[in-house]
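Weekly structure sync, notes
Attendees: PL, DS, HV (note-taker this week)

Item 1: ABC transporter permease
DS walked through the input record. Source organism listed as Microbacterium faecale. Sequence as pasted into the shared doc:
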Amino acid sequence: MRAFVFYVAKLLLSSFVLFIVVLTVLFFLLELAPGDPVQTLVGDAPISPQFEAQINAAYGLDLPSWQRYFIYIGNVLSGNLGYSFGTNNEPVLGLILSRAWNTLALGGPAFIISTAGGILLGSIAARTRRKWLDGGISGGAVALFSIPNFWFGMVLIMVFALWLGWFPTQGKSPYGQDGIAWQYAVLPVITMATTELAYKARIMRSSMIEALGQDFIDTARSKGLSAQSVLWRHALPNALLPMVTVAGYSLGFLFAGSALVESVFGWPGMGLLLVDAIHQQNNMVVLGVVIVLTVTIIIVNILTDIVYGLVDPRLRGRFARKPSVKVPDQEVSV
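Item 1 (cont.): predicted structure, written out as tokens:
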């Protein structure tokens, strides 16, 4: 138990250091970015020196970069992500949380579809190795994984929205209505799930082929078990171990990589908020979105490492209490 607590504490410490490094690099990269935020705020209109000084003082832009950095770090650690740079002056955290549900509405179904589909197709490909079905699944997975998801999304819009008219092109609900309509989410979810499904299918195929080559599979076959029973009851549980890590990383990637998909489909999630903030040089919102995505990925990775450490017998043995063996005293003859 002590080893497991030390393992978790080490994960938390390394994750916190990684978070500070990411935040520091991004903060100073945005400081070095060209452009004047105040001029971006007012557009092409001329700025009086008094107005510029007032805006700089209100947002702390008149302070040195290193001083604003330490102030921002302190605010972030206390849960304050600052305020949006603009006329609305909204709290960044509230702005992000209002978009988080929309991103989750795409990333959640895409994660479930890609994971379940990847396990199923990878298992079938491994079971039919070197046959036409394996070739079809493997070739299709390579092709889909090679296609950029934003380009694939535009193809889906052209075929299923413009030509066939089955789904709307952009948005999340009919004009003037709140909430999410399912027909608006179909194409973005397919776009986000396809690349991940192809990747997981290839990982699952390799893992299943390795599991099917183990000695305990030969033992199960020698007992007269059917091929289906050997595949699903004996090989699959062992082949799923690498998928725990892959699924954890893909969950973080789905949320972090949603910016392009949300931009293509005009989906008002955190990704589209990030893209708009970059165009408007709204650095507080950019930093806030990246912080939320970074924390999400770090939490998912920590949970993945903990789950992997619990389900993998090789790692689980490191956390088990070692039996104490008392060596009996021996008489030594001289």
